[in-house]
Structures are given as structure tokens and as C-alpha cells.
Amino acid sequence: MIRTEQENSMLADLLFEDVVESREDIFKKYPRRKLEKEQLVLRFAPSPTGYLHIGNVYTALAGYILTKNSNGVFILRIEDTDKEREIEEGIVQIVDGLKYFGIEFDEGVLGKGKTEGIYGPYIQSERVEIYRVFAKDLVSKGLAYPCFATEQELEEIRKQQEKKRERTGYYGKWAKWRDASLDSIEKELEKETPYVIRLYSRGDFKKKIECTDLIKGRVTLSQNDMDSILLKSDGYPTYHFAHPIDDTLMDISYVLRGDEWLSSQPLHMEIFEALEFKQLDYGHISPLMKKEGEGKRKLSKRRDPESRVAFYIENGYPVEGVKEYLLNVANSSFSDWRRLNPDSDILEFNLRLEKFNKAGALFDILKINNICKEYISTLSAQQVYNYALEWSEKYSEQTFSKLSNHREYCINILNIEREGERIRKDIVKWSDVLTQLEIFFDDLFINMKKDVVEMEDNLQRAILNMFLDTYYFEDSSSEWFNKIKEIALRNNFSTDSTEYIKDPSKYRGRIGDVAMVIRVATTGRRQTPDLYQVMQVMGEVRVRERLQGYINDVLM
């Protein structure tokens, strides 16, 4: 039987006897914003149910740039109504992670116990009384109802549906509490049977609805006919019920969210209609993908460490480099814009939603590394030092100790090949700085894994002794190199590549092989920045000690 209007009104009072405010009272507390039409109000609304995903930064960055470009308002709202999955300090992780990437909010949750704005609370669990007002209103209009079905009963319904090869879910004839009498409901309430509040859907799954997605364009979906849960048995709302209310009261312009929510849009549209709210536009952002074999899959929280924002923070990836990569993923035109505007702030880029990848962009950590490498190569030694010092204070005690106690020496180290035509590009992230410092500090060098030179010991010894005999710290780069050429000639190594290629058998090797012996003896590595500059920064005493130590300890 279908309940009468009077019965629905009585039922609403019975279920929400403590709710005295009306929907009109709520709207008076949340006035429309006095903004120009072009000024966007967007929100980023994560759940504190796990670590912050790089996809969260991707979505938040888009909202941040769009609102800044329009002189609008960007809000951080926390959707924490899934209390069973909520993790400790989850909100702090979200706020700190976004802050690390320079994503700033004008309103909402700005830190632990800190909020800003008149449209709060900005944490959903603190807005429960607001949701109850609207839930009561829906029940009074016959648009929602209490459902006392147990988990066992729902499981039995699912089994019957599967047996009959029907769609699974709580809808239509399967929703036994949908049209329950007021008497039967009162009996369950008297027994204090747990219940949820469900939507009384009026949709027809066989009918289609069309909508325009801000990213995907025209989308055709089936109407919703599921009596979805609006309020859970613990009193907290579902995302489906909370976000239409919050987005409407906060005067949100449109919603950007992951495309896993696209299939729920018909449900959300029906809830907006039931609440008599203006429909919102949505832009569904495709997930970041990872190449696997011949195909691709979603970037996984469980399988891919680079999916975690903490991965970038703990390893010291430069924020600007990661953001540049994400914007290139969002709009492929960003790379062309950056080439034409090398010194411009990313906020000057005209981000376009319709240009987002509709099928899911491939996420490539190697490309991030390359972009970060390029970005760091544009910085001065002083800037690299400052960034690395700031990062290492929290994440690398060893790096911080060297940087803070040997400031000038470290800046000189970082300045090697940082000026001129061939700028060094060997630092991807701030954690790489320690690798650069290793060869310059004896206590780090002694424990460092050393490279090996494939050359007989006696010949290496002869080369190094000759170099020690002629080494003069005040030599210019050309004078220094000419001495190495002389050593090469005296030991029958070619100093002319063309001549060597004509007849390699005439020589023991090339001049590069001679330089390699000196390089490995001095630094322990086959690949280093410019060796002359390295020696100039090390100083004569350390260079001579390294070469003599190699002769005494490595060569037999």
C-alpha cells in the first residue's frame, strides 16, 4: 500500500522528532555568494580513508588553477562519513599533502582544527543535523522512507535476483519496505530495529537520460531506479545524499570528480530533483593509467608506490616539476605553452576541461623524472641548496648535516656545470643531492661503492704517478687537459679520434681511457660532472690524497 500525505508527514515527525528546523531555515544560513558569473566556486572533497593519491593532486590542481584564473573561490571540504574506513590523522595527511604541492584553498579546512569561511562546517561529519533536516523533508513528501531490511535479507534478495537473472539491488518489487504501512514501520521502531533512510526512486531503468559532461561531452545513461541509501543506520549520510546538499548550500559552480562516479550520475540527478535543487554540471576526470604489457590499467594504490603522494614528498621530488607533468597530462597543449612561456607561472596557463584526456592518460614516472631533471637544471646552486636543505631537515639527517655544516663547500659542489652551455641534469629529486655530495666528503666516500677500471694495474699506476708529478692546482682547464694529453701520448693512447678509428691496434686506447683512470681514482665513479671542476672544488690536498690512496689501496 502507498502511504498517504498525512501518513508520510507523521512518519517524518516520528523518525526525526528532534528536527525542528525546515529546509527554508537552512537556506537562510547559506546565502548565495555575491560573485560575478565568471568567478568559479569549486571544491575538492577527499575522504580521509587512505593515503593521498597522486590522482587527488591531479584533480585538486585542476580546481586550483581554474578558480585562480577566474578570481574565484577554492574550497577544501572533507567527506568523512565513512567512519569504518577512516584512518587516523587522515585529514592532516590530506591538508599537509596538498599544502606541500602549493595547492592553496580560500575556504574550508586549512589545517588541524583550522577552518575558514561562512559556509561551514566543512567536515561532513559535523553537518549531520543539516542532512537530517533534508531527509525529514523528503520523508514528509513520500520521497524517502525507512528500510529495516537486514544484511541477511538483502543477501537473500541478491541471490533470488541472480537466480532469476535480474539486476541486483534494492529497487521496485524487491524493495519490500518501499510502501510499508505506517503501522508496520511503527512496530519496528518500537522494537528499536536498526534502519536506514532510502530514496523512494521514481526512475525507470529502461529509459535513458542525456547529459553534457564538462570533460566527456554528451553522455547517455539509464535512469536510476535504485532506492539508494541516503542516511545510514549510524545516522551519517552517504556520499550520494551529502554532496548535493553541500554543493548546493556552498554555491558550487560545477563538480570535478573521478569518472568512477559517472555511473552514479543518474542517481545524483534524481536526488537533486527530489530535493528541488538546481542540477549541477559535472566533469568526470578519467583515472591516471599505467602501461602494463600490451595494455594499460589504473594506477594502483596497492601495486604502484608512485601512486602515493608520500612517495614524492619523502623522495624530495620538486613540487614544480611534478605539477608541470600533471598539467601536461591534463592538457597536452601545456608543453607547447611552456616552451613559449618558459618563465611564466603555471597559473597563467589557460586550462581547458574539454581538452582533458577522455580515456585515461598514461602516467609515466620516467617522464616525471625527466621534467624534474629539466626543472632543477634551471635553478641556481643556491636555489638547489635551499630546496635540498629544507627537504632534508625532515627526511634525510645525513644530507641535512652536510648541507647545514658545510654551506659554502656544498654550494660550490652544486654549482659544478650549473653555468655555461652544458648545464648538468643529473639531479631528479632532492634525495639525489646526497649522491652528488658523496664523492666530496671522505666519510661518505670511504663507504661508497666504487666503480672499476678495466686496465692493468701497472699501467694505471704509471698514469696516476705521472699525473701526480705534473698536477698543479692553479692550472687552467686547458693547461690541466694538455697535461693529460701528454700523459696519454707518453703511454701510447690516442689523442685523435679520427686516427684511432683508422687503426685502433696501434694504440692502447684513447685519451678518454686515461682520463677515466684519473676520474675513478679521484671520485670512485666512471660518470661524474666535469672532472676539472670537481678537482677544483675538492682542493689540491684531497685530490692528492685520493690519487695516492687509490695507488696504495686499490692497485696491486
UniProtKB/TrEMBL annotation:
This protein's GO cellular component annotations are: cytosol
Q: Which reaction does it catalyse?
A: tRNA(Glu) + L-glutamate + ATP = L-glutamyl-tRNA(Glu) + AMP + diphosphate
Q: Which GO terms describe its molecular function?
A: ATP binding; glutamate-tRNA ligase activity; tRNA binding
Residue ranges of the Glutamyl/glutaminyl-tRNA synthetase class Ib catalytic domain? 40-327
Q: Where is this motif: 'KMSKS' region?
A: 298-302
Question: InterPro entries under this entry?
Answer: aa-tRNA-synth_I_cd-bd (IPR045462), aa-tRNA-synth_I_codon-bd_sub2 (IPR020751), aa-tRNA-synth_I_CS (IPR001412), aa_tRNA-synth_I_cd-bd_sf (IPR008925), Glu-tRNA-ligase_bac/mito (IPR004527), Glu/Gln-tRNA-synth (IPR000924), Glu/Gln-tRNA-synth_Ib_cat-dom (IPR020058), GluQ/Sye (IPR049940)
Q: Where in the cell is it found?
A: Cytoplasm
> What keyword terms does UniProt attach to this protein?
Aminoacyl-tRNA synthetase, ATP-binding, Cytoplasm, Ligase, Nucleotide-binding, Protein biosynthesis
Query: Where do we find the motif 'HIGH' region here?
Result: 46-56
Q: What is this protein called?
A: Glutamate--tRNA ligase
Please report the organism this UniProt entry assigns to the protein.
Answer: Candidatus Dojkabacteria bacterium
